[in-house]
Amino acid sequence: MPHTLTHMQIRELALECGYNAASIRERIYADVEDGRDQAGFLIYTAAADSDGTLGGLVELGKPENLGRLLRQALDRAHICASDPLSAGHDPSKDQSLHGAACHACSFVSETSCERENRHLDRSLVVPSRQGDSPILPELLSQIPATEDIETVTADGACDTRRCHAAILQHGPEPIIPIRRNGRAWEPDCPAAISRNEILRATRCLGRALWKKWAGYHVRSRVEAQMNRLKLFGERIMSRDPDRQTAEIQIRIIRHCRSDQWRDIAHS
């Protein structure tokens, strides 16, 4: 856990002051002998030059700023751009030496890490979501009751009773592919009956034809746009909300091919 926390703090320091993260190094201290469970870490600059004083790196190390940076690092670690793959990573499957960690959330330059980015797991520091299904009901509850929703399209991770029930509660039709090993549910509620109808149609038409018939592939366009937003990084330059919106739209146009932009313009 101290190792992962150190990486989170290094990434937050580099993001806050603009100092090169590859020039920051770590040193982990731990003592568990004689029942003394204590640990700490030291973050220092790799080169003895004046860059360590630029961008407020020294100022951020003061107690009045360090607590704020630590809270920001912990808040940022809850969600990773590679989730749910990162959050649900099982090291036993690929013989790796890290858990819920990747280049998007916990890894730093190998010159900065004593252990070469091994033995990292952010789920030991903060609770990480295993997928989108736990937050789908919460997202649906934020939609005003006056808004009409025809369909809710989600991937197979949302093939749960809780998600199906939350979708039907708001009225729309769920378009969720059944997992490949999925079986029929006991028809004891509307959510189970609706889900069994999807399973019956999938078995009758086949997965590929069902996705085309149900309009599931439209979801890929939304996924492509969200991926472009993730490419922008964690921050945008503009401060005014209207300018922030314009900046995001300009960046989307820059990342779109001409044929993709025509599809967006007509949608």
Continuous helix count? 11
Radius of gyration: 23 Å
Large-scale geometry: globular
Indicate the structural class. mainly alpha
Strand residue content: 5-15%
Mean pLDDT: 78
Q: Between the first and last Cα atoms, what is the distance in angstroms? A: 47 Å
Biggest β-sheet description: 2 strands, antiparallel
- The helix content is 40-55%
Strand order of the largest sheet: 1-2
Give a count of the beta strands, DSSP E runs of length 2 or more.
Answer: 4
Order of helices and strands: HEEHHHHEHEHHHHH
In short:
By secondary structure, the protein is mainly α. 43% of the residues lie in helices and 8% in strands.
Structure description:
43% of the residues lie in helices and 8% in strands. The strands form two sheets. It has a two-stranded antiparallel sheet with strand order 1-2. The chain has a two-stranded parallel ribbon with strand order 3-4. α1 (2-17) crosses α3 (63-77), α6 packs across α7 (190-205) and α7 (190-205) packs across α8. The protein starts with a helix and ends with a helix. It is globular. It contains eleven helices and four strands; from the N terminus they run αββααααβαβααααα. A hairpin with a 6-residue loop joins β1 and β2. It has 267 residues and is mainly alpha-helical. The longest helix has 16 residues, at 2-17.
What are its keywords?
two-stranded parallel sheet; mainly alpha; two-stranded antiparallel sheet
Q: Layout of SSEs?
A:
Blueprint: H1 2-17, E1 24-31, E2 38-45, H2 57-60, H3 63-77, H4 91-94, H5 136-141, E3 151-153, H6 161-169, E4 173-175, H7 190-205, H8 207-214, H9 219-230, H10 241-255, H11 258-266
Parallel strand pairs: 3-4
Antiparallel strand pairs: 1-2
